[in-house]
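I'll show an entry:

:::
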Amino acid sequence: MEALNLRLFDWLNAPAHASRLTLDLAYALAIYAIYLVPLLMIVGWLQRDPVHQRLALRGLVACVAALGVNSVIGLVWSHPRPFMLPVGHTYLTHAADSSFPSDHMTVITAAAVTLLLSRELRPLGVIFAAIGLGIAWSRIYLGVHFPLDMLGALAISGTVALLAARGETYYMPALHRLARGIHRRLLAPLISRGWLPR
């Protein structure tokens, strides 16, 4: 399995003299695309529709829980990043911590699966899944992850997002009330002016 991982990495990793345009695209995907997830959650939460609010909360639960699983895996089994071996070419500075599974891929996949499970927002889920593929490629291309890091993240976050959807009836009412209370207290000045929904 490790031999296949290295072979796929060698195929996807950037060459010694990568083009500036390709590197810029990879940087945009590897560094900035992930911010679409919290932006989506904030926009979803600020909708007056309780369905969108619950979906935003479910996505948050899936992301946090999946990242928790990643942390446990990283503590139990530490897998070196490509530049720690060293193999390939590295174009992105990163801490020398465990590479498996990818946190970036975990977050974008949790969001994408949450959206894909929603009938009305499924097209947006497809878009986020495509962005996830771009993030996976970019972080391998720039030399900070292996392909199996991405597949591991996909499996973990996909499973957690499915569990978050199935168990929603157990945790959502209390979580929704808590989130509404925090929303009202923290954003009271903006709510009173009518700039945000109650």
User: Anything to note?
Assistant: The mean pLDDT is 92. Residues 49 and 197 are 10 Å apart (CA to CA). The domain at 22-170 is CATH 1.20.144.10 (Vanadium-containing Chloroperoxidase; domain 1). DSSP finds nine helices and no strands in the chain.
